[in-house]
Amino acid sequence: MRVLLLGGTGNLGSCLLTTLNGRGHTVVTLVRNPSKLTSHPQRHSIQVEEGDAKKAADIRDIARRHQCDAIVNAAGHAAMAPWGKSDLPAIVDAVIQAALELGQERHTPMRVWFLGGQGILDIPTLPNKMIADYIPMFLEHATTWKKLQELPPSAIAWSILCPGLMRPAVGESLVYKLSGESTSPPGWSTKFLRIPVLGPYMNIMSQISSYATSFEMNADFIATDLEKGRDSEWLLHKVGVKQIRK
Ligand SMILES: NC(=O)c1ccc[n+]([C@@H]2O[C@H](COP(=O)([O-])OP(=O)(O)OC[C@H]3O[C@@H](n4cnc5c(N)ncnc54)[C@H](OP(=O)(O)O)[C@@H]3O)[C@@H](O)[C@H]2O)c1
């Protein structure tokens, strides 16, 4: 696929550059400061465009010029505290707007991967309750989720990846692989949920740390999925991930 990656200078974005390229995708990245990629190992085989991910016209024009089939948004970073603010909501608005315009031009919905966080995943057995309803951090991901749900189903071929804490890989790719699940974190235990009031907090706090994953594995998850095109099982889904033994 020809992929437009937003945010190729970030932690996840720079892994995506390597992995998308390694898996045979043609990669164009929109970055604010191209000089940050001068020493990236894949610099010679990717195309770098200067732009602002908050501007729908920048995204649309670059995707149009390079005839990109898919967009991956790794630009922006959700604010941590409940009252914090970042550029992520403006970036998501711009990506949605650009994808809608490109889809209308081509008469087919644009394939787009968004990034969310584990907080927007559902807790099994608790109807309509997300993890962030109890631990209200990185709430801008919930705003992204709401915007995606409000889109007509045929407008954008979106998926949203919802990892827990991500960190650089330390050799685990030899031992572990990433398992994905729609709607809830894979293998989420329902322990403590029957305890009134405190149960959901105990449920979350007792297992959330086991959902840390590496930037490299998440990049691989997206790159592998893009090979499936419209046959992806994650179309119009929020997707939780967990490292499991190979
Ligand atoms: N890191 C985690 O543990 C974690 C866990 C769950 C979910 N997430 C989510 O995953 C996503 C990626 O996280 P990350 O850790 O890779 O973030 P990051 O390292 O902070 O990277 C953010 C990227 O966004 C770019 N950016 C920001 N505003 C931009 C703009 N207006 N135009 C173009 N590029 C812009 C930055 O470019 P510059 O280099 O120019 O600043 C940088 O490349 C975020 O949505 C984050 O909330 C992260």
TrEMBL record:
Residues 7-166 form the NAD(P)-binding domain. GO terms for molecular function: oxidoreductase activity, acting on the CH-NH group of donors, NAD or NADP as acceptor. SUPFAM superfamilies: NAD(P)-binding Rossmann-fold domains. This is NAD(P)-binding domain-containing protein.
